[in-house]
TrEMBL record, chain A:
UniProtKB keywords: DNA-directed RNA polymerase, Membrane, Nucleus, Transcription, Transmembrane, Transmembrane helix
UniProt protein name: DNA-directed RNA polymerase subunit
Role: DNA-dependent RNA polymerase which catalyzes the transcription of DNA into RNA using the four ribonucleoside triphosphates as substrates.
Transmembrane segments: 46-66
Pfam families with a match to the protein in the record: RNA_pol_Rbc25
Main location, first listed in the record: nucleus
Example GO BP: transcription initiation at RNA polymerase III promoter
The RNA polymerase III subunit Rpc25 domain, residue ranges: 79-157
Compartments where located: Nucleus
UniProtKB/TrEMBL annotation, chain B:
The keyword Transferase is annotated on this UniProt entry: no
Residue stretches making up the RNA polymerase Rpb4/RPC9 core domain: 16-144
Compartments where located: Nucleus
GO cellular component: nucleus; RNA polymerase complex
Primary localisation category: nucleus
SMART domains, A to Z: RPOL4c (SM00657)
One record GO biological process: DNA-templated transcription initiation
Protein name: RNA polymerase Rpb4/RPC9 core domain-containing protein
Protein family according to the UniProt entry: Belongs to the eukaryotic RPB4 RNA polymerase subunit family.
Organism this protein belongs to: Salvia splendens (Scarlet sage)
Upper classification of the organism: Eukaryota, Viridiplantae, Streptophyta, Embryophyta, Tracheophyta
Molecular-function GO term, any one: nucleotide binding
InterPro entries: HRDC-like_sf, RNA_pol_Rpb4/RPC9_core, Rpb4-like, Rpb4/RPC9, Rpb4/RPC9_sf
Keyword annotations of the record: Nucleus
Length: 195, 144
C-alpha cells in the first residue's frame, strides 16, 4: 500500500551547498537521505512530493527544520498485491514489483497441489507447476501473481557482508493459497484463479 | 514474525503512525508520479538523468496496476464511507463479487452493515450493500 506522510526533519546542509538556491539544495539532501530507503516507521520511500508547500526554517548555522511530504510504500500483513515472477528455485518463488523485489514465497506457501521440474541448463532454477482441476499450470515470467502479505520483516544490517546477495532491509513473505482470489493470472485465459 | 506490534489488515489494526498518513490507491500514486515526471521534463533538458531508477520503476508499476485513469473517477471512489485502507485495497483490486471483496478485505463486513442500516428500511442485508458498492465502483470505471 502506498502512503502520503507529512514529515518534520532537522536537516544539516553541508557548507558547499549553501550558495545554491535553498529549495534545490534541501530537496537534493532529502532525496539522498530518504529516497529509496527503508526508514521512518519502516517504509520504503518513493519520491519527494510537494516540498515547497511546507516549510523550512533556519535554526542555527546550517541547520534547517524541514517539513515535507513523502510517498511511501509499506506493505501490510493481510494486504493483497500483484507482482511478477523474479526467480523460481527449490526454496520457492521470488516476486518483484519493479521498484521492490524482496518478496519471497516459501514452498509451504505456494499454491497446492504442486510439483517442480528442474530447468535444464540452470543449476538452481526450477519450474513450479500447479495442478488445479486436473490441469497443469506453470508459472512463468509474464504471469501476474496476486499474493497476500504474510509477514514483513526488517533484518538488522550485517556488520560484515555475509554472502553475495545484496542486503535487503525489508523482506516480505508472501502467501499464494488460503482463500480468496489469489493465484496466477494467466494472460491467455485472462481469469484469476481461485485457490 | 516481525517484532513490531501486531498488525493485521483483516481486523483493521494498523500501527498508529499510519493513521496520520494518508493511504493512496495505485491510481492516485500514478497521478502524483506522472505530474512529477512532467515537471522534470519541463525543468531539465535531460529528464531521464534526474529521474532515479526507483522513480521510473514505481511509475511503471502504478501505471500498470491503476484501475481508474482520470482524477474525477478517483475522487468519486474516495467518496465511499469506508476506512481509508479498505477503500484503497478495493480501489486497487476491483473485486467483481461480494465473496471476493470480503475475502480481500474481511473488515468491510462490519461497517457496511451500519451504513446499510442507515439508508434502508427494514432488515439490512449486508451482502446486498456490498454488491451495490461493487457495482457502483465498476460503473465509475466504465464511465470515466
Amino acid at each position: 500500500m502506498f502512503f502520503l506522510s507529512e514529515i518534520e526533519h532537522t536537516l544539516m546542509l553541508p557548507p558547499h551547498l549553501l550558495n545554491r538556491p535553498l529549495d534545490e539544495a534541501i530537496k537534493e539532501q532529502l532525496d539522498l537521505i530518504f529516497l529509496d530507503k527503508v526508514s521512518l516507521s519502516l517504509s520504503l520511500s518513493l519520491s519527494l512530493y510537494f516540498l515547497h508547500l511546507l516549510t523550512y526554517t533556519l535554526l542555527a548555522d546550517s541547520y534547517f527544520l524541514v517539513k515535507f511530504r513523502l510517498v511511501m510504500f509499506r506493505p501490510f500483513v493481510g494486504e493483497i498485491i500483484t507482482a511478477r515472477l523474479k526467480e523460481s528455485t527449490v526454496d520457492g518463488l521470488r516476486l518483484s514489483l519493479g521498484f521492490f523485489d524482496d518478496i519471497y514465497v516459501p514452498v509451504p506457501f505456494l499454491f497446492s497441489p504442486n510439483r517442480n521440474e528442474p530447468v535444464p541448463g540452470h543449476r538452481n532454477r526450477v519450474n513450479w507447476i500447479w495442478n488445479y482441476m486436473d490441469e497443469d499450470y506453470s508459472v512463468d515470467a509474464e504471469d501476474e501473481i496476486m499474493f497476500k502479505v504474510h509477514d514483513v520483516s526488517y533484518p538488522p544490517i550485517p556488520l560484515e557482508p555475509k554472502d553475495v546477495k545484496p542486503f535487503a532491509p525489508m523482506v516480505v513473505t508472501a502467501l499464494l493459497h488460503g482463500g480468496g482470489d489469489l493465484g496466477v493470472k494467466h494472460l491467455d485465459c485472462g481469469e484469476g484463479s481461485i485457490v | 514474525m516481525s517484532a513490531e506490534e501486531e498488525e493485521n489488515a483483516a481486523e483493521l489494526k494498523i500501527p498508529d503512525e499510519f493513521l496520520k498518513a494518508k493511504c493512496l490507491m495505485n491510481c492516485e500514486v500514478s497521478l502524483i508520479l506522472e505530474h512529477k515526471y512532467e515537471q522534470l521534463q519541463q525543468m531539465a533538458d535531460d529528464p531521464m538523468n534526474q529521474m532515479s531508477q526507483v522513480f521510473e520503476k514505481s511509475l511503471q508499476y502504478v501505471k500498470r496496476f491503476s484501475r481508474y485513469k482520470n482524477p474525477d473517477a478517483v475522487r468519486q471512489v474516495r467518496e465511499y464511507q469506508l476506512a481509508e485502507f479498505e477503500l484503497c485495497v478495493l480501489g486497487n483490486l476491483c473485486p467483481e463479487t461480494v465473496e471476493e471483496a470480503i475475502a480481500m478485505v474481511p473488515s468491510i463486513k462490519v461497517p457496511i452493515i451500519s451504513i446499510a442500516a442507515l439508508y434502508t428500511r427494514g432488515r439490512a442485508h449486508d451482502d446486498e450493500a456490498i454488491e451495490k458498492m461493487l457495482n457502483d465502483l465498476s460503473l465509475i470505471k466504465k464511465f470515466e
